[in-house]
Predict the 3D structure of the following.
Amino acid sequence: MCSFKGWWDNPLPQTRVALIAELSSALDDSFGGAAWDRKRVRPDSLDALMRTILSQNTNDENRDRAFDRMRARFPEWSDVMVADEAQLKDAIRVAGLSNTKAPNLQAFLRWLKRERGDLNLDFLRDLSNQTAVSLLTEHRGIGIKTAYIVLAFAFDRDLCAVDTHVHRILRRVGVVSARCSREKAHTELAPLIPEGQARSLHINLVEFGKTVCTARNPSCDACPVSRLCRYYHESQGKEV
Ligand code: SF4
């Protein structure tokens, strides 16, 4: 599209806002994240947090297997909280990093019980995004991506978590610099997203990253947003 030719040579804030709007719209046409988001069933917030901690450095299948095994062995969160650590590690082993994930899960549950008297995250509903993210990320094993996912999908907040797929795509397209960390990308991206589209953008980018803009050998020739992409134009050696 002509209006984005060589946009990265002059990445004014308003140009980046227009680019993200275009990217969001084009990906939604291809992946339907907004429709999926409208129909999704909102998860329990503590379930969502525990599942997201388990998801770190593994795939969705192993995350879900670990979660299901843990809940089969320890049906209540209070059971997980007081479980023998070795048994908990064994239950979640399939998700990897069980030596750190098990103590992190238990430490958070103990903190929640101590601070709130109840194993329930409903109190986050009354907090601003910034306060809720700060509170959650004080805990080991909970980074900004995990906090954003829980707030977006369990509390319907308008937030786009930057996971490994989203980070890779943002850098390839040129929305953030190649050296921008995943953590910093959250704050750079947030003000660029059209209101109400952050969750669907996240859903669409993750699906796009799994199927088209993959880590190795991205399918640039079949890409619905190649016209917007810095990597594409540079790798093609095209005049932009
Ligand atoms: S053109 Fe290639 S690198 Fe750029 S967004 Fe599309 S698949 Fe990814």
About this structure: Residues 169, 172-173, 212-213, 218-220, 223, 225-226, 229, 231-232 surround iron/sulfur cluster (CB under 6 Å).
